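Cross-check.
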Amino acid sequence: MIQMPIGWYFPKNLNQGEENNDKFIDSKFAMDSWMSFTREVIQNSLDAKDPNSSLPVKIVFQYKQISINQLPGGKRLKDIIQLCADQTTSPQTRSAYLKGINKLSAKHIDCLKVSDFNTTGILEGRNNKWGKLLNDTGSSDKSSKTSAGSHGLGKRTSFLVSSINTVFYSTLYKNNESSQLVSLFQGRSILINWTGEDNDRKSLDGWFGSNNENRDIREISLPIKNQELNSIDEFFVRKDKIGADIIVPAISIDNIDDTKGKIILSIIENFFVAILENKVELEVFGEVINKTTFDDITRSYYNRNSKRKAKAKSTNLREGNLLMYLRAYPKSEPVIINIENDKIEYGYLRVYFTQSVDDNFKFYSLFRSHGMKIQDNRISSDKSFSAVVLIEGFELNRLLLKIENPAHDDFLVDGKFVNDEDKEINLAIKLAKLVWKKVESYIYDQTKLVINKEYLLDDVSSYLSIQGAISSVKIVKPTIIQSKKRKKGKADAEKDEKAEKEDPNGSSNNVKKKKRKYGLEKDEKLITDFEIEPIVLFNGETYQITFKTKKDIEKVNILLTAEKTNGGTNKILPLIEQVNQNGKFIKVKNNNIKNVELIEKRLLKLEIKLKTKSVYKLVPEIYEISSNNQLEKEKD
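Predicted model, tokenized:
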């Protein structure tokens, strides 16, 4: 038998165009390459779970330093990357490839291997899993109809964490026909188009494997298998337990401990449901993460590596919400919400909900049945909350999978990839929208503001919002306003005494300028003495502001602040739809309701309508307009 040549094979580039830029640099997955990589490899392993095993999937992340002699085809690959760096017209690509060459030139090359167990392995064949994984772009061969990965694009996340855009795959699986164990190994590199030493234009795609000239040209390069694997370093070969390995050489790291922290943080952020439901156990560089160790791992790594304030890691995924989610899941009792269309039930939602969270936290996290997070969604509810939503049911998960995007962080409900003629796609879109609607309706219902119809107005200077008909409100005489007055010190008293000597009548020429929170600095005087203190009433549709001054005043400006029920503050201006005084609309600028004329120079009744349905506590500050600025204000 003639020994098949083993090595790198880059076919001729027969296309007219040239690819001179590294296509991974601007990839959506590259927004956070370690998170994308971690999500993808774990999801792939969960999809490949052995249906005959009752044990959870086990996934091991292993770090090892090797020499370039141990790296399959390492020296040849280094030469090829050098050619790519010399020939690219992109400074960004050249810089990236030179960094990769430096890593290959080092005494020790950092490698990462991810191995799964209690899985099926990867079946050989051009039209089976192995062929889809190694040869195709945009295709997948998931064994389950509810598998998380279906586009075949996420597999490229492994290349993102390699500084040389190269990944090796190894598997051990059982042949169903012969019942024999089969071991496979192959590599792939995705670079740019380059010209070789023989002046042939080469494809950007290359394979490391058995390059038999008699092979099907579609195979590109055959996997190295069984006895042929004796020439490959044992770190790259799966020889014992059934499962699969992904080996990433020359990983992009500066500090291995930081990389470990990033991987663990991504695991507990995105797979806490799968871990706590015992669907998966993991080991990262010797650290075990499972249902038993989860709390200790979270305390150790999450508080140290995550940011207190949640930050976007992709369009729909955020980092920093985990501790709030864990207050809801699994501590609260789940609520079951059925998902049905045209009286047919397709599945249900398992909703874990709590209001025992930090101020202004208003997120829910959405999971499909595989236990990986799909989305972090924020909604503008009246009260703070945390919720974890699990999509359950075979048919519901199967249909939603059809419209799940390649990054697994959204459902595609519009755009050019939606096929209007596909009945199942249309049904999936309806169900996705229904899931979002059901979840948000439930949360809005749980967090809606409930306000009684009778109040003692003991601090109307701060706010008062009343739900219901104003005629049913019982108003008790309020106390003297104190909240808008600042306690004066000795220096303030001296300034007041000096001002009184200069102008005992309190002329507007000596009105103190006040820097307001949301407005420009103006010559205005804050009114603190009222015959009827400012009252804000809410009748379910509009807010009504009423007050009466002690002295005659022509016009006032009203500065409004909107306080949410949790104490947070909003600028009111973007929320205002209109301001009405006896049928006359009032101009609003910089949160000021400007130039409001008082009835008989004392009384004001104002109606304000907001654009939002949320109930706010409106805080008014009333300013007398100084006479020397009156004409200027009227011009404004």
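The first strand starts at residue 6 and ends at 9. Residues 423-447 form the longest helix (25 residues). Passed to J.P. for a second look.
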